[in-house]
Design a protein that fits this description.
Layout: E1 5-13, E2 20-25, E3 28-34, H1 36-46, E4 51-55, H2 58-61, H3 67-76, E5 81-84, H4 90-98, E6 103-106, H5 108-112, H6 114-124, E7 129-138, E8 149-151, E9 154-162, E10 167-172, H7 173-182, E11 187-192, H8 204-213, E12 218-221, H9 227-235, E13 241-244, H10 246-249, H11 255-264
Parallel strand pairs: 1-4, 1-13, 4-5, 5-6, 6-7, 7-11, 11-12, 12-13
Antiparallel strand pairs: 1-2, 2-3, 7-9, 8-9, 9-10
Length: 271
């Protein structure tokens, strides 16, 4: 088993000071949590393998991502970090990488224009491009070209969502995952909207389906409330990395706590 990564996630919104960390439920009911750079420095001290910054209102507001936050983070932390939100052109990818981001995460713009993903991979290399997939459970199994799963007593599929999780696309997350893998991207960041902020664990059905369908790394996201949920993301969901927010932001656990428990459960992690 390869070493698994522990990745704190910082959801950002624009404010008069350049950007703040927020946390919500189902991508809504956002509450202020603090300063992104202070959080990033704290997580680096705790041993985080990477950090993900997601500018969650950039696409909805039709603006570029928060370059100032990227520049500050690049000066203050040494671990790799990914930026997502509002990445909609080759120019925005270039600006983000030049500002200091290790990787960029593409979602809405890539679904609207898959050629953008292909061009970004060709221009900057697949190792710089992460595809974020926001999924939502859908019980309308009459839709064409979908992968149907049994979830309890109901059958469902998982629809790709865009615009901050607010708009459905009709695309199936498994099919879309396979397609973006063929473009040469480095990894997939999978979040299931129904679980986001609920603290009852990842959607393991969706996580395993995507992990089984592709050979590139999958980051499990959305719903962590306990360390056991992160262990399940790896052991049952097949994820290569686990991402969490609330449990770290509000000091329920440290990254070190998670790594120690992973080791106890036979899951290799970086020191």
């Amino acid at each position: 088993m390869s070493k698994k990564r522990i990745i704190p996630c910082l959801d950002l919104v624009l404010d008069e000071n350049g950007g703040r960390v927020v946390k919500g439920v189902g991508f809504e009911e956002l509450k202020d949590a603090g300063d992104p750079i202070e959080f990033a420095k704290k997580y680096e001290r705790q041993g985080a393998d990477e950090i993900v910054f997601l500018d969650i209102t950039a696409s909805v507001q039709g603006r570029e991502t928060l370059i100032g936050v990227i520049q500050k983070a690049a000066k203050e932390i040494k671990i790799p970090f990914t930026i997502g939100g509002g990445i909609s052109s080759i120019e925005s990818v270039q600006k983000t990488l030049e500002a200091g981001a290790s990787k960029v995460s593409i979602n809405t713009a890539g679904i609207k224009n898959p050629d953008f993903i292909k061009k970004a991979v060709k221009t900057f290399g697949g190792d710089k491009i992460v595809i974020a997939i926001d999924g939502k459970k859908n019980t309308d199994i009459t839709m064409p070209n979908i992968n149907i799963f049994k979830n309890g007593d109901e059958k469902c599929w998982y629809e790709v969502m865009i615009m901050g999780g607010n708009k459905g696309t009709g695309l199936d997350i498994v099919n879309w995952s396979k397609e973006v893998e063929s473009y040469g991207v480095s990894e997939i960041l999978l979040t299931i909207k129904d679980r986001d902020g609920m603290c009852d664990g990842y959607d393991l059905i969706a996580t395993k389906a995507v992990s089984d369908a592709v050979s590139i790394p999958v980051i499990a996201s959305g719903g962590v409330g306990t360390i056991e949920h992160m262990i399940d993301g790896v052991k049952k969901g097949g994820a290569d990395a686990v991402l969490a927010a609330s449990v770290f932001h509000f000091d329920k656990y440290t990254v070190g706590d998670v790594k120690e428990e992973f080791r106890r459960n036979g899951i290799p992690v970086k020191n």
